[in-house]
Amino acid sequence: MSSEELDQARVEPHHDRDATNAATNLGTLVRDWRERALLTQEQLAERAGLNVRTIRRLENGGLRRPRSASVRLLVDALDLDQAEAESLAGAATGTPRQATQPARADPAPDGRTVTLEPSTVAPRQLPAKVAGFAGRDAHLRRLDGFLPAETGDETTAMTIAAIAGSAGVGKTSLAVYWAHRAAHRFPDGQLYVDLRGFDPGGSAMHPAEALRGFLDAQGVPPERVPASTDAQAALYRSRMAGRRILVVLDNARDADQVRPLLPGGGTCLVLVTSRTPLSGLIVAEGARPLIVDVFTSAEAHQMLSRRLGPRRTATEPEAVAEIITRCAHLPLALAVVAARAATRPGFPLIQFATELRVTRGGLDALSGSDARADLRSVFSWSSRALSPPAARLFRFLGTRPGPDISTAAAASLAALPLHEVRVLLTELADAYLVIEHAPNRYTFHALLLAHAAEIAQEHDTGAERHASTQRVLDHYLHTGFAAAALLNPQRTEVVPASPQAGVQPEEITDYTAAMDWFTAEHRVLLAATEHAARGGFDQHAWQLAWVLSGFLDRRGHWEDWIRCQHTALDAARRLGDRRLEARAHRGLGRANSRVGRADDAYLHYSQALELYQQVDDLAGLARTHTNLALLLEQTQSYPDALNHARQSLRIHRNLDDGVGHANALNTVGWCYALVGDYRQTLTYCRDAIVLHKEINDRDGEAATWDTLGYAHHHLGDHRQAATCYHAAIRLYRELGDRYFESVSLIHLGDLNDLAGDPRTARNNWQRARHILSKLGHPAADDVRARLLGKATATPSATSR
User: Fold this and answer.
1) Backbone torsions φ then ψ of 440, nearest 5 degrees
2) Could you tell me which residues are beta bridge partners of residue 113?
3) What are phi and psi of 274, to 5 degrees?
4) Are residues 753 and 644 in the same domain?
5) Judging by beta carbons within 10 Å of its beta carbon (0-12, 13-18, 19+), is residue 489 exposed, middle or buried?
6) Is residue 602 part of a domain?
7) Distance of alpha carbon 294 from its chain centroid, rounded?
8) Structure confidence at residue 355 as a pLDDT band (50, 70, 90)
9) CATH number of the domain within which 247 lies
10) Could you tell me the CATH number of the domain that includes residue 706?
11) Among 125, 451, 559, 704, which residue is least crowded by beta carbons within 10 Å?
12) Are residues 184 and 317 in the same domain?
């Protein structure tokens, strides 16, 4: 084609204006202009973002009425001027069109002025790449899976990734880092806007402002932007149709702020970050949720190493570990510390760890003049957006004990009905100020806890904070008291005072429910015991320790038992109550005996005996003698053990204490077995069984069945011994008492071995060793020796 013909073609290309031949003319136009642009059909399809099959059908007349969006894409891809664009549009609709008012004018090759549509711009709006980005491999892979297919078209559903998480968790860093990594997949550009959803000034961006920015980035003149938001959104969608553009909507407040900014077709991908879960966007627009949590320890180490250098972090591993812990694995907090350390290269890292340790919850060390890098400011942007009732609950949660809180406990904490608290907790969870990590159980990291406690001091009076603490302690005490009574109905030493107004103890209906409640709450109860002691609630402290002791013993949490008994002992001393002090010493004796610390146990039992004598508490005195008898078994001081057992029984015969009396009978029987008088064992333990059954003491009954089994075993009545052992094992298993189940399994294994059944013996020993190993009990080594054939059965192998 000559230059003269080419000039002519740019003004008036070959085509038949007869509407009946529109399809043929359309194909001719597309082919002529494609050849003029020196493009193949495949190249034109790629440039326009259309399927190559669509181009072929257009050129051969098979596609008579292409979509208007496809026509516009062809106009952009072929770089048509205004007149050519009108001609192509007329051919596509079968109706010749006149040229419209031009947006700008350029000289044509022949010197005439030709009106042109504004050229399509490929925007590149992403912020700078994130330096020192670390971790998030699983999240990056998930985002990779959201990429539209290379051959995707505008008729497919648009993909929206809703990246949600708490303040400072690194949502923007993740979105921007991935956007840069995937930018090559979006040749038509990348759009970015900070919607300021949680701006400290409260000035969240209106969608119209964001739309104007996006349209301007695509070359739309200001005078062509419509006035209404709906019209702007329509123009925006038209400009985006069929183009491969990545849209990043950062820091969105809610779904309504996002919806006008969504493209219409499936060739685009939208990333939205928010401190709310954007549930409406997930439900109505099919957004894919991607929840971002704090760093793992490995990710936190990787981040600090990249920002401070691997040599510096490797030199002080303990300081690095403390910094990560004190920063609660929160990326923003770690970034603040890393920035301070980077600007002070000569400072040891332990200096920054110490600063975090000694300041209020670490927040003082993580504050600064830049609001976006000040943890207090960042957290406050979220907490200030809450409704007043939710904000009040959030503040009270900052004063509660333990690693998490149930919905029921939160209701007592806030003195609100359960259904109202559920709504408020949902609001807090939607703001990622709390996390529902298990059904009806909520937690938040240490820095948010410090923030909540800090603003509670600013907004709530000391009396209000004191009352909320007492309510939650009352909740745990009264619910725990009911649960403890179901585990062991004979324990009646404690009667808590009535709970405060607004407290709603949970209903625990049976033994299984009680064990389930303790299993879920025992870490919280341990923390509540210490929290009560620190806050001046000493009565709650020792009573909570009492509530916990039965469960901790049953499940083998003996170190926890020792810890909370020390808390109870300190509380009793502050209260000046020697009876409570004696009870705490006795508890410490029992817990220490379980872990084989016989000397410590003996010391605490001796102190308990002295204090019980001072206050003339005969029941406590008698029970401590029982405990001493069982302790002396561990050192094989069997005559001394029998002496203490007899003293206990002598005192109990004159007391109205059925449980203590029955246990004393069994203990005397056991001590007679230790000295080899098995007939006396049967005499005392048969009386004990009758009494245990009368008072429904299943713990004592199980222990007595084990003693009877041991006596029959050594008297040669193997069948009766096996029956007794199996009765003990069944009861211990029902009670969830893993330790004493293992004791009876060992005894049964010894019986099996003596009876010439080594296979069954090994099975029972294996079961006992498995239990003891899980409990971390040293008796597991004794059982291992049995399994290796290197030990003979002795009654002191485990402590009853």
Assistant:
1) 65, 25
2) 107
3) -160, 155
4) no
5) middle
6) yes
7) 9
8) confident
9) 3.40.50.300
10) 1.25.40.10
11) 559
12) no
Residues 237 and 301 in one domain: no
In degrees, rounded to 5, the angle at the alpha carbon of residue 196 between the alpha carbons of residues 334 and 427 is 80
Average predicted confidence (pLDDT) for the chain: 86
Q: With 50 as the cut, is the pLDDT of residue 113 above it?
A: no
Smallest CA-to-CA distance from 50 within 62, 26, 66 is with 66
- Which CA distances in Å does 6 have to 36, 77, 84? 8, 18, 13
Residue 95: exposure state from Cβ atoms within 10 A (0-12, 13-18, ≥19): exposed
Residue 39 clears pLDDT 60, i.e. is over it:
yes
| Dihedral Cα 100, 105, 107, 112, nearest 10 deg | 40
The number of angstroms, rounded, from the C-alpha of 9 to the middle of its chain's C-alpha atoms is: 66
Rounded-to-integer distance, Cα 530 and Cα 631, Å: 28
Answer whether 736's CB lies under 8 Å from 779's CB: no
Q: What percent of the chain has pLDDT over 90?
A: 54
Rounded distance, CA 777 to CA 633, Å?
A: 17
Give residue for tokens 């004794």: 782
187 lies in the same domain as 59:
no
Same domain? For 685 and 781 the reply is no
Kindly report which listed range (52-66, 105-119, 194-208) carries the lowest average pLDDT score: 105-119
The 3-state DSSP class for residue 286 equals coil
Q: Rounded CA gap, 452 and 234, in Å?
A: 43
Domain boundary among 689, 724, 756: 689
> Do the bridges between strand 159-164 and strand 288-291 make them parallel or antiparallel, or are there none, so unpaired?
parallel
Same domain, 50 and 163: no
State the Cα–Cα distance between residues 436 and 434, nearest whole angstrom: 7
Q: How confident is the model at residue 117 (pLDDT cuts 50, 70, 90)?
A: very low
Stretch 194-214: mean pLDDT: 83
Long-range contacts of 728-735 (CB under 8 A, 24+ apart): 728/702, 728/703, 731/698, 731/701, 731/702, 731/705, 732/702, 734/698, 735/487, 735/511, 735/554, 735/698, 735/699, 735/702
Residue span of the structural domain in which 585 resides: 577-689
| SS3 (DSSP) at 29 | helix
Residue 551, pLDDT > 70, answer: yes
Residue 164 in domain: yes
Residue 442 lies in a domain: no
Given 267, 291, 315, which residue is the final one in a domain? 291
E-assigned strand segments in 375-509: 405-406, 435-438, 441-443
CA atoms of 440 and 420, how far apart (whole Å): 14
pLDDT at 691 over 90: yes
Domain count, the chain: 5
Residue 343 lies in a domain: yes
pLDDT at 97 over 60: no
Instruction: Looking at the structure, tell me whether residues 33 and 78 fall in a common domain.
Output: yes
